[in-house]
Design brief:
With 279 residues, the protein is an alpha/beta fold. It has two domains: 217 residues, HAD superfamily/HAD-like (Rossmann fold), CATH 3.40.50; 30 residues, no CATH class. It contains eleven helices and five strands. The longest helix is centred in the N-terminal third of the chain and has 23 residues. The protein is globular, with a radius of gyration of 22 Å. The two termini are 37 Å apart. Bound molecules: magnesium ion.
Length: 279
C-alpha cells in the first residue's frame, strides 16, 4: 500500500522534485524484530494459525468417533469410556501476546516476571486466529477444554477472566486451568498436569506452541528435540497441533543448550554456531 502511494505521489509531483529523504536515525538492532513483526503484522502468521486450528477441528470428529484414540502419553488403560477432553497451552496458543514482545523490541527490554504479570493482568491479548472457533466447536460436541499453562499461579484470576470473556471457560471453571506450581509436583514440565486430566478424561488432542506442551522429554539439544518430533511423527496435525512461535520457546534455549550463564552476546554466538550455512 505504501509503495503504491509512493508511486502515485512520484507520478504527480515528479520524483526529481522531491527533496532528498532525510537519513533514518540509527535503529537499534533487536534480535526479535523480524519474529515479532511476522507474528503481529503478517498475513502468513494468521493463515498458519488458522490452518493449524482447521486441522485440529477436522481431526476432532475422527477422535470422537474412535474410542481407542488418545493424544496423551500419560493416558493409561481404561480410558475408552471416559468423557472427552482437549488440552491446550495458553500463551501463543490461545492468546496472542505479541504486544508484550513488541514492547520489548521497541524498548530494548527483556522478559521479566513482573512486567509480564502486569501485561497479563491488563488482559489485552487477542485470541490466536482460529482458537476460539475450535474450542467452542469442541465444547459444542461435549468435549471439555483444559488449559495447562506455565503462567504463574498468581495469574489465575486474569487467566480465568480472559477465557470466560471469550466464552471458552468450561463448567469446571478454575479446575480447567492448571498453572505451574499450583500443586507441589506441578513444575515446568506439564506431564503431571496432563496426568491429572487423563485420570478422569480421554484426552483427544493437545494444542501448543512449544514441544514441552506435548511431552516432558522435550530435550536439551537441537538434535534430541528433532528426534522427539520424529518419534511421534503420526501425531502431528491430528493428535498434536503445533502453533508457530518464532519469538521465544525452548527451541531457542536448546540452541545454546540452556547455558543460562551466557549473556546476550554469548547466546547469539551459540545461535550463529547452530546454523547450517550452505558454505
Ligand atoms: Mg505457549
Amino acid at each position: 500500500m505504501r509503495m503504491i502511494r509512493c508511486l502515485v505521489l512520484g507520478a504527480v509531483v515528479g520524483l526529481a522534485a522531491l527533496p532528498a529523504a532525510a537519513a533514518e536515525p540509527q535503529v537499534p538492532e533487536r534480535d526479535n524484530l523480524n519474529a515479532v513483526l511476522w507474528m503481529q503484522g503478517s498475513a502468513e502468521y494468521k493463515a498458519a494459525a488458522l490452518s493449524a486450528y482447521a486441522a485440529a477441528r477436522a481431526a476432532l470428529d475422527r477422535a470422537l468417533a474412535d474410542p481407542a484414540w488418545t493424544a496423551a502419553l500419560e493416558q493409561t488403560d481404561g480410558y475408552r469410556d471416559k468423557p472427552p477432553a482437549i488440552v491446550l497451552d495458553l500463551d501463543e496458543t490461545v492468546f496472542d501476546n505479541s504486544a508484550y514482545m513488541a514492547w520489548l523490541v521497541k524498548t530494548g527490554g527483556t522478559y521479566n516476571a513482573q512486567s509480564w504479570a502486569e501485561f497479563i493482568e491488563e488482559k489485552l491479548s487477542p485470541p490466536v486466529p482460529g482458537a476460539v472457533d475450535y474450542i467452542r466447536y469442541a465444547m459444542s460436541r461435549g468435549v471439555t477444554p483444559f488449559y495447562v499453562s506455565n503462567r504463574a499461579a498468581s495469574l489465575k484470576v486474569p487467566s480465568r477472566e480472559a477465557l470466560a470473556e471469550l466464552g471458552i471457560l468450561p463448567a469446571p471453571g478454575d479446575a480447567a486451568i492448571l498453572l505451574k506450581r499450583e500443586r507441589r509436583d506441578w513444575g515446568v514440565q506439564k506431564g503431571s498436569r496432563r496426568a491429572v486430566v487423563a485420570e478422569k478424561y480421554r484426552i483427544l488432542q493437545i494444542v501448543g506452541d512449544n514441544l514441552g506442551d506435548f511431552v516432558d522429554d522435550y530435550g536439551v539439544t537441537v538434535a534430541h528435540r528433532a528426534q522427539v518430533v520424529r518419534n511421534q511423527e503420526s501425531y502431528w496435525g491430528s493428535r498434536w497441533i503445533m502453533l508457530p512461535n518464532p519469538a521465544y520457546g525452548n527451541w531457542e534455549s536448546a540452541a545454546f543448550e540452556y547455558n543460562i550463564k551466557l549473556d546476550e552476546n554469548g547466546r547469539r554466538a551459540e545461535k550463529q554456531r547452530a546454523l547450517a550455512p550452505w558454505k
